[in-house]
Structure formats: structure tokens, C-alpha cells
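Slack export, channel: ligand-projects

TW: morning all. Re-posting the request from yesterday since it got buried. We need the structure predicted with the small molecule present, not the apo form. The ligand is S-adenosylmethionine; the SMILES is in the block with the sequence. No rush, but it would help planning for next week.
GE: picking it up
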Amino acid sequence: MTDFVVVETQPIDHDISPSPTPANLVIMASAKNRTRGTKRITHVLNTLYDDAQENLHDEQNFTIWSKETYLEQLQDTTMKLDACSVSTTSDDKGGSSLIPCSRSIQDSWMKSCNGVGELAVDLAENVVIGAFEEEANSSSFETDSSQSDNDIRQEWLGTTPFAIEYRIDTQTAGHLDDLIYHQRTIYDSILETPYDPKHWIELCQCCLTLGFADIAAAAAHKALILIKASLNLDHGCEGIVYPSNLEILTKMTLGERLHTRSPTIIEEELKNLLLICYSGLLSSLLACGTFWEGLRAAKEALSIFPKDVDLLETRNMLRDYFYERQNSLKAGAADKVDESLILMTRVGEIYQVQYPWLDTRLNDRTPALVRELNDNLNSQICEIKPIILGPLRESFDVGPLGIFAMRDIDEGESVLVDKCITNTTDLHPKAQTYCDACHASLLAPHTLPMQIVRPECCEEVAFCSQDCCSTATSGYHRILCGKDWSWTYGRNGRPKSTGLAPDPMWRVRLFLRMVAVYLADTQSTKTKVHPLQHSLFGRMSANYSLPSYPDFPLTHDWYYYENIGAPTRILMTLGINPFTDPHWTQEVIQTIFWKMENNANMSNINLSTTTLPSSNSPQREDSTGEEIVTSINTNYLFLNHSCEPNISWRGPSSTPFESSDSLEGINGEIIKPGSATIICRARQKIKKGEELKISYIGDPMGTSDNTQLEGGRQERRRWLRKWFEGGCGCSICTKEAKEVKAMAAAKSGP
Ligand SMILES: C[S@@+](CC[C@H](N)C(=O)[O-])C[C@H]1O[C@@H](n2cnc3c(N)ncnc32)[C@H](O)[C@@H]1O
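GE: finished. pasting the full C-alpha cell output, ligand included:
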């Protein structure tokens, strides 16, 4: 169902809360016209405006736009209206927004609007009648006549490289709109009855056909949780402790759908659904290229349905693909078969794309957000600014950001010291070898035993200072305390990773920490801001690319357990309902994962060799003391890359004998080894207004000897593809690209 909400926001200081207050809710209308046609939407919205004016004109709680303003808004927004999904926006100058949003968001807004909300619903229903009658005779779903049938809609090519030609054929044959419509109706059914596994299985099948195999796998996972909870299956679902009412809710929903109270009939249905669910899950994992996890799921499925031909066939395909990958990796590695090679056999791969049904506005970074970011940065030296200068419109995306000098900067000057609490390593905090907040070493001589601060609430964590302890206990730790998170330090059957690669579970632990920071903040400020619009997640950009046939972009690592199983378990443990909460759909979770991947900083530390281990600081059994700290440094992440950087940076230090100068912050404070703080200094004189740029890849020219990266300049440029596939825009890369082009032209001859 495509629902529209028109809101006018009142001026609010640096608040990007999406919840319209009763005072700013102008019109709420359900335009159930399922249309992509711009003309039709404009027509419906014109009707809505007229009706709303009639109904609301003497309501003092509502502000009505002038028709002129309204139509101006329409011009900017109608093209986006086919993105039927959750979208919210507001800005601190009292801007106005026309928002397509889902029924469940409306419902939650209605709840927060109390009496006035109900009035709005009544009025909205009046409004809808007008729109409905208009639409009654039209076909239920219409494509924009301006779109040619032969155009390939890249954004709908999916996340999986698997069978992409099939999806191109589907689009060429003109079936895409039907599939999109089908997907919307399934989401509607889920909103109505979220505990019916059948809808989640249908979503799995539909997303699989659309090529979004990761979302398909997540839908199957949700169905599996409901079914397993109801059948009391031993397997559990990746360790999830089921809420006690999940079984009752699922059985009640099935009973209502089947018009029965018979436990036998309901159980029969659950078993039927279980088989179809496994089949969808295995196909999704196959399409995501995570053959090893697919084989594990197949083993579980076949232990229940040993003779099912469909399951056996998919299992065989998973096995064949797994061996094919393993053999080719072995052949490439010659005699060097090690843990990293085993890890490579177990990872899946998908494209990093924006989900076309998730409203793009959720990814917008508005001028209001940039002002908030600069308030937090609180620097006299540098500021966060859009790179592309142009007219900034208040509730619209400002484009790529960077950090710029606010005054002339001297060579060697500290420009940014970015301490952060969003960090993780493989070491369990219980070991108390590092500060749970900033990750500074708690080992002598960096922190003396009497300096260690322990919170009153638990014995799980320790801190390097009272400051860190207060930050944690009044914030994220409040959300996490008293719950068992030790499973996030497990490896889900994988060997320990070696070298520069951190264990893939870093994503899970960083996600957990970030969700806790977000929840602590929104709870203390009593705001209901969507995670993607909260400054913590909203500040980060992803490296999206479109699967453009026939030149496909890079694929990115993806796991069933890390990307779906573990985050679902985290949310459920934190009391978030992944079946009903529109803020925490798999699309939102995966978007956060993409953002983390594009912005996380990784640094090697070796705490054990830098200090004498003290008796009260146990290491994990298999810990070598060498760890990789992964952190989201919330200001540093705005620095762009250049192969001619004017800024040098250093992450967590492990060496206590370095010159104290390199460990000093801007105000002379000492940054302790192991801390996830990043210090940035000017490599040269920098003029006011110049952009500050770092190197993402160590020595960008690949000429220094003591670097861990191999392969020189060419290899380094290849590494850059992780952040930007279109190529780095610096002058060296531009020159090299021109030379390559000229050489290719010369080779191909006249
Ligand atoms: C860590 S973020 C840096 C901040 C980012 N510009 C933003 O708007 O949030 C990395 C992203 O910045 C962009 N970027 C950074 N350096 C670049 C370069 N040299 N050339 C092209 N894009 C770059 C890419 O989109 C990359 O995915």
C-alpha cells in the first residue's frame, strides 16, 4: 500500500526527529492507488489538498500550506513517490515535506499523537474517500508512460550476481512492475499479521525472484524463528532465546487464518511451512554465494526432511559450488593453504546497492545534520562541509562531505584528535585488558591498577578513567549491562583470521555497540528518530554502486550469520521486535552494515608485548595479544582520500616507547596505547579553505619498504576500489588514468 503523509514541521533546534508532533501534522491520507505514474500521483495529491483544506481549515492544531507551496513541494517530490516505503524528514527551519510512508509508521505516529492523531485519522479517512472514488475504475498498478519498456532499471537488478541474466529478461519482458507490486502486497500482509510465517516465506520467494537474495534469506530466517519457536524445535535459531509469547502469537495467527483451533491442523501447517521455508533459505544462501553456511543449513533441514528431493538437489548444488570455489582457491594458493584461505571458502558475496523500495531520503544528510555534526566536532581548526558547493536546500541531501581548514594550518600541527566509544576487538572486555569505552590499555605502565575504574552495576567491564566510566554507564553500557554478549566473541565455526583481516564478527560487535549508543541516546532524549536519520548512523556514507549490465561492480563480503542471524539475535535480546518494528528491518540493518564497512578504521595493536601482563589481566585462551581494533571514529570518518595527502594520521598505538609527542592530543593530553583515538596532523602548510585529505592505504605510491601491503602502486590503487570504484579523483590518479587511456588507444591503433 502506498501511503502518503504530508507534514509541516515547526522550527526545532538541531532535531532530526521524524515524528511529527500533533501541531505539525497537516494532512494524513492513504492514497491507495498503487501507482508509479507521476501524473496520477499529482492528481491524487491535488484532490487530497482540496479535501484537507475543507476538513482542516478551522483546526488550530494544523497548519495548511498555501497551494503554491504545496505544488512547489510536489514538483520536487513526486518523482520520488514510487519509492513506497518508510520515509521521514524534518528540518530546523520549519521546512515542509511530502512523505511516502508505510502503514506501520503511520500507526506508530498515530499512537504518539494521541487524541489529535485519532482526529487526523478520521480526517484522513475522509480524504481517502475522495481519492478512492477517483481511483476506483483505474487499474491497480500503473507504470509511468514516460518509461520505455526496454529500459533496464538498474536499481532493481538485485544484490546477487547469481542469475542476473534472468532478472534482465524479467525486466525486458515487462514483468518487473508486477513483481514490485507483489512485493508491496506482501509487506502489507506482514504489517497486518507479522507472526504468520507464510508471509515471510512469500517475501523470501519474491525477493529471491527480484534478485535481493540477502533480504530473501532474512525473510526466511524470520519465518524459521516463528516456526521453530512454535514447534519447540531443539535446533534453536542461532542461539536466539525466543520470547515466551512468540509461540502463542504464531499459533493464534495460524489458527485465525485457517479458521481452526485444532493443534493438529496448526502443527501440520507449521511443518509444511518449515519445509518451504528451508527450501527458500537454501536457495537464498546459494544465491548469496555463502555455500558453507548453506551446507550447514541444508544439514539441519535434511535432519528433519531427509528424503525431500528439492532440498537434496539444492544441497548438492551448494556442495558442488563449495568444492569448486575451494579447489580454485587451493590452486591459486599453491602450497599456502592456511586459515585465511579457509575463511575465503566460507564467505558470501553481494553487491552493495541501495534497496529501491527503501526511501532514499533515509540516506539524506541535510544541512541541519551538517550543523549538528560541526557542533559535535567543536573545532576552531577544521569543519565538516559539503564538497560540491551549490545552493543548499534545507531538507535535501547535501552530497559528499569532507573536512576543510577554517584557518591557515602549520606543518606538524595537530588538526583533529578523534576519541571514540564505537570500537571493538576480538578480546572479551571481561579480560579487562583495555578500557571498555575508549579501548586504552589497562595494563601497567599505561594504566596503573589503582587508576582502573570499575562501575557499580557489574564486574564485566573496566575503564581507564572516571570520564570513560561515566560516558559508558550513563550511555551505551546502560543498554548492554546484565545481558550475556559473550557469544559475539565466538567465531561461528570459522578459524581465527590472520594477518590484517579481522574476524568477520567485528561487524556484529560494532553493530551491537552502535545500536546501544543509539538506543541510549534516543531513550535519554525521548526522541523516536529513525536509526538511519540519527546522527550516529546518518553521518556515514556507503559505497553504493549499481549492478550495470554487462559491467558489474565489485561484490562485498556477506555472511548469513554475521549479517542476519547475529543482528536479529542482538535486536531481540535488546527487546526490539524484528517482526513488527519498522525501524529495524533487514534493509535498515544491511544499510548500517554497508555504512560501517565504508567508514570503519582498522589498526593492529599488540598489547601483550608492550607491557608486562599483570595477574589480574587474563587474555583469552587463543589470544596472541595481537589484536585488530576496529573503530568508527565519528569525525575522522569525514576525511577523504588523496594519493597526495596533506594530513597524516595514526590510530591505536601499541608501542609505549615512541616519542610522547606522537601520543599527545591537541590540548597536550596523553593518548594511551591501545586507545581507538585517531590523531591527525598536517604534513605540510595548509591554507584556510583547503580540504584536509589523508591516505586510506598507507603509503599511496607503494614505495616504502616497511609496509604490510604488497604489490606496490598498482595493488594500492586496487585497494581503493573498496571505497570508490569510479577511481580516486586526486591529481596523481587522474594523470595515471589518462596515461592508461592513451596507451590503450595507441595499442588499438588508428
Ligand atoms: C570514509 S568516507 C569519507 C567521507 C565521505 N566523502 C562522506 O561524504 O561521508 C569514504 C567515501 O568518501 C568518498 N571518497 C573519499 N575519497 C575519495 C577520492 N579520493 N575519490 C573519490 N571518492 C572519495 C567515497 O565515496 C568513499 O566511499
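GE: first-pass observations. The chain has four domains: 3-135, 151-288, 367-490+498-541+582-695, 707-750. DSSP finds 22 helices and 15 strands in the chain.
TW: perfect, thank you
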